[in-house]
Amino acid sequence: MDDMNPSLDDTLIKSAFELIAERGWTRLSVAEAARRGGLDLAATRRRFPAKLAVLLRFGTMCDAACLSGALTEGPVRDRIFDIVMRRVDTLQAHRAGVLALLRDLPRDPLTTLALGPAALRNMAWMLEGVGVTAQGVRGTLRTKGMLALWLATVRAWSRDESEDLSATMAALDKALDRAAQAEATLSDMMGPETAGAVAEPDAVVATVRPDDGGTDLQPSSFPAGG
Predict the structure, then answer these.
(1) FRET label pair with 2: which of 99, 159, 161, 174, CA 20 to 30 Å apart?
(2) Mutual angle of helices 136-159 and 166-195, in 10-degree steps
(3) How far is it, in rounded angstroms, from Cα 88 to Cα 86?
(4) pLDDT band at 206, cuts 50/70/90?
(5) What 3-state DSSP class applies to 62?
């Protein structure tokens, strides 16, 4: 999908997540979301031919929101913290609907599977947005590590009812600590030359895991887009 009508996108996404909050993902009707938002059905059909398109477009909108003004200077850890919390802010704007979506997606394996590649693209864009390459073998590992970091953060966010999202930020901080520890372990086990092919200083690595408990998040079980 292109970016020809951001107003339609914003309105449809808002209405869709309102309906998801009320009825769940499985009962979402794109046509009904369009009517709720006062949108033309023909134009909506062209932009959102199926429910999956709603999630893909939302993921792309999340990318745009967190990449705009992303930090490219300073410690990589700080840059990653900042861009992840920017993405959390986009989820927070549709909190009730996103939480309902996260509860329902495990019962929709086809949609969950379809979101997987898009989720990795989102993570790659976030890395590139803070000046960390997501290309090559190292980039692939970083992207998977970024996905694990994001899942840990979303898990905490789904349980965090504070206004300042302090618990979410604390969980993200711990996940970044685990990433640094895992990277140091790789360097000790493999030697600096070999480990350099896997991760660089301050890079996110693929051994970060979400904390146990809470919402059962899988690598593709959250809004993602290409």
Answers:
(1) 99
(2) 160
(3) 5
(4) very low
(5) helix
Give the span between the Cα atoms of 163 and 28, in whole angstroms.
28
Beta carbons within 8 Å of 199's beta carbon, 6+ residues apart = 138, 141, 142, 145, 183, 186, 205
CA distance 142 to 138: 6
What is the pLDDT confidence band of residue 141, given thresholds at 50, 70 and 90?
A: confident
**Contacts from 14-23 at CB under 8 Å and sequence distance 24+?**
14/94, 15/39, 16/54, 16/97, 17/58, 17/94, 17/96, 17/97, 17/98, 17/101, 18/97, 19/97, 20/97, 20/100, 20/101, 20/104, 21/96, 21/97, 21/99, 21/100
Q: CA 174, CA 169: separation in Å to the nearest integer?
A: 9
Per the CB < 8 A criterion, the answer to whether 28 and 94 are in contact is: no
- Nearest to 51, CA basis, from 75, 78, 81, 19: 19
% of the chain at pLDDT higher than 70: 78
CA distance 174 to 138: 22
pLDDT at 42 exceeding the cut of 70: yes
* pLDDT tier at 139, thresholds 50, 70, 90: confident
CB 50 within 8 A of CB 25: no
Which of 163-172, 180-189, 202-211 is modeled with the greatest confidence?
163-172
Q: Which residue has the tokens 């998977």?
A: 144
Query: What's the token pair of residue 89?
Result: 């802010």
